[in-house]
């Protein structure tokens, strides 16, 4: 259920930028003949010409839709060019598109906090940049307004077609506008400039929404496509929401939206205004009531996260109809492939970004031979992630066997698997200065105890950073990844700038994990996770923690729906400050694997428990026996 976040007091300027028919544009850039032609990108599976996953605006003009297959698209538009999505390991390989997305992100991130929401979508917090413009060079002359900005669509600004540009210019320069609208006007100009830069430097067009919060910016970014932007002044919010169908709101596309329609007769967001808070609370509880109440008024406090890298890496494949997998050998064959790719990605993430994934999760969709309509789901299974392709493959197969055992409930029946995916999540930055961990993980015996000297150092990799995100695709899916190819492309594709990398690195240092002087603590931290893992194996033959059937990859879901999987994490972040300011560091409770905690000395365990459930009588900390001394912060 959605949860309302407090709305900041100060007005903000938020943009949502979405690439136009993205995969098609990428293909058109590498094959200029396709430029301006009706074109679609199709799945490599050629049944009925393959499923369309991206359609150019020229093809849309002929009535071609993404729901069509290639054969149907050809009937509707005989001149259409169908481009096959690249293939690797028997499934779609999206690296080309991911790298292209990174090029765009690198440009957009130059103006403010940037959150990469999917392979082709970005949120920007432009508040500071807009304030600066308002202070330094406020737009005051309609004639001098930049052309692309003058083409903006301003919600609520009525004008005849011939007058539109003139009115937009005037709106952007209004001296009688309130502070919020003035900031928004600056935001619109900044976004227009960024979009022009994206076009010049990458040859891609994009569309954008500019508003005072993420929710509104996202809702309007696709309103005028392609290559246009839409601005939402506060005064137009109510009119806009009054006619917006509930299902258009990201969080209302599912059960909650259906319940609003069926149980309360709500068809548009505006309809919600007629319900009292009591009525909404009676129906949905206090949290959802608050969120609905605010949403109906266009209020959303959700912040733009400073995140250019994915929260998880995943790799999956579906096996529809006759392609369903019906025995362990075929499952193993595919799992091995998926794990190989996953392993490459996390290794690449480690090399490029100095990030480590902690949890491996397996998801599957399955049915039993004699119960085709059963609603029982294959349970998702997780375990601590061990680096190395062979280890990931081995663990994923164990997770599968464990899930299957539970799914079958001891029945001796046939089964079939229609989708498989593996995800690496709980990714954290290696604290700076902790370079020996790289060897620890890269080494051939990564599961072995850490017989590594503390002070080995690995030189900083200058090709840091690159990023990927992806939306679901019809038959195969590959979630966010870091690929070898991207490693290679990182420079040439002008990915994230050195300056940006440095800034990111600085931010990394100050967040989440303790800074560690030397490396022994972090090595212990990881080696505990791994030894626990082995012990669990020995004791019960299984290595998994149960996530429950409802948890079909929170990470996957998050990316599919562009909802950060750990959006609520901030609430769970415990900070532990030493008396001296320079020693302050933070742990995110969710970053600490419970299995690791169990192996910590009792006093440390108690301290961690205290973060989660503060004790009424906290014991006095003794230096040398607290978590902070276990993972000592850097003293500079
Ligand atoms: P979208 O942004 O949804 O669509 P788009 O960029 O193709 O077109 P639009 O101009 O309408 O925004 O998706 C971005 C890319 O993600 C798209 O080019 C192809 C891929 N994709 C899939 O592979 N499968 C899907 O189901 C969807 C929706 C997108």
Short description:
With 636 residues, the protein is an alpha+beta fold.
What can you see in these coordinates?
It is a single chain. This protein is of the alpha+beta class and 636 residues long. The protein folds into four domains: 234 residues, Alpha-Beta Plaits, CATH 3.30.70; 72 residues, MutS, DNA mismatch repair protein, domain I (3-Layer(aba) Sandwich), CATH 3.40.1170; 159 residues, Dna Ligase, domain 1 (2-Layer Sandwich), CATH 3.30.1490.100; 110 residues, no CATH class. 40% of the residues lie in helices and 16% in strands. It has 23 helices and 19 strands. The strands form five sheets. The chain has a six-stranded mixed beta sheet. A six-stranded antiparallel beta sheet has the order 16-12-15-13-14-17. Helix 4 crosses helix 8 and helix 5 crosses helix 8. The two termini are 44 Å apart.
């Amino acid at each position: 259920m959605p949860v309302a976040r407090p709305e900041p007091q100060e007005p903000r300027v938020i943009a949502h930028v979405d690439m136009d028919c993205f995969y098609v544009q990428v293909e058109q850039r590498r094959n200029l003949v396709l430029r301006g032609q009706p074109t679609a990108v199709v799945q490599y599976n050629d049944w009925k010409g393959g499923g369309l996953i991206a359609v150019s605006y020229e093809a849309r003009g002929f009535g071609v839709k993404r729901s069509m297959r290639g054969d149907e698209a050809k009937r509707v538009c005989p001149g259409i060019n169908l481009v096959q999505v690249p293939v690797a390991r028997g499934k779609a390989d999206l690296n080309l598109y991911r790298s292209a997305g990174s090029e765009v992100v690198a440009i957009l991130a130059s103006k403010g906090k940037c959150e990469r929401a999917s392979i082709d979508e970005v949120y920007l917090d432009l508040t500071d940049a807009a304030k600066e413009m308002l202070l330094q060079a406020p737009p005051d002359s309609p004639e001098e307004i930049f052309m692309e900005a003058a083409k903006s669509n301003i919600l609520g600004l009525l004008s005849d077609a011939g007058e539109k540009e003139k009115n937009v210019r005037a709106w952007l320069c209004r001296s009688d506008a309130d502070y919020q609208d003035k900031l928004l006007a600056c935001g619109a100009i900044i976004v227009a400039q960024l979009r022009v830069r994206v076009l010049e430097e990458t040859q891609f067009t994009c569309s954008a929404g500019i508003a005072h919060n993420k929710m509104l910016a996202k809702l309007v970014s696709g309103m005028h496509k392609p290559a246009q932007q839409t601005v939402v002044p506060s005064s137009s919010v109510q009119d806009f929401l009054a006619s917006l169908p509930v299902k258009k709101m990201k969080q209302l596309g599912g059960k909650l939206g259906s319940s609003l329609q069926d149980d309360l007769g709500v068809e548009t967001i505006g309809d919600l205004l007629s319900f009292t808070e009591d009525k909404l609370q009676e129906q949905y509880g206090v949290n959802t009531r608050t969120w609905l109440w605010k949403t109906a008024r266009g209020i959303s406090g959700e912040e733009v996260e400073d995140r250019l890298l994915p929260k998880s890496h995943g790799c999956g494949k579906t096996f529809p109809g006759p392609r369903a997998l019906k025995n362990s050998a075929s499952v193993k064959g595919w799992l091995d492939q998926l794990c190989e790719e996953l392993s490459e990605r996390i290794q690449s993430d480690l090399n490029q970004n100095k990030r480590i994934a902690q949890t491996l999760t397996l998801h599957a969709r399955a049915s039993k031979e004699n119960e085709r309509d059963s609603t029982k789901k294959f349970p998702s299974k997780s375990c601590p992630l061990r680096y190395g392709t062979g280890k990931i493959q081995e663990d994923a197969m164990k997770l599968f066997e464990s899930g299957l055992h539970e799914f079958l409930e001891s029945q001796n029946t046939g089964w079939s698997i229609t989708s498989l995916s593996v995800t690496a999540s709980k990714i954290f930055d290696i604290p700076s200065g902790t370079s020996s961990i790289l060897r620890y993980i890269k080494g051939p015996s990564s599961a072995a105890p850490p017989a590594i000297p503390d002070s080995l150092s690995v030189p900083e990799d200058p090709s840091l950073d690159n990023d990927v995100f992806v939306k679901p695709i019809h038959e195969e899916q590959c979630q966010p990844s870091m690929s070898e190819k991207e490693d290679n492309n990182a420079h040439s594709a002008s990915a994230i700038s050195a300056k940006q990398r440095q800034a990111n690195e600085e931010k990394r240092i100050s967040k989440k994990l303790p800074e560690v002087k030397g490396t022994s603590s972090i090595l212990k931290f990881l080696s505990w996770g791994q030894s626990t893992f082995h012990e669990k194996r020995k004791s019960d033959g299984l290595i998994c923690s149960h996530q429950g059937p409802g948890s079909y990859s929170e990470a996957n879901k998050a990316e599919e729906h562009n909802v950060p999987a750990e959006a609520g994490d901030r609430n769970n972040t415990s900070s532990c400050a030493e008396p001296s300011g320079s020693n302050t560091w933070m742990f995110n409770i969710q970053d600490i694997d419970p299995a690791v905690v169990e192996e910590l000395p009792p006093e440390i365990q108690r301290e961690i428990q205290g973060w989660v459930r503060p004790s009424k009588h906290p014991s006095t900390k003794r230096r040398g026996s607290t978590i902070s001394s276990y993972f000592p912060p850097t003293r500079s």
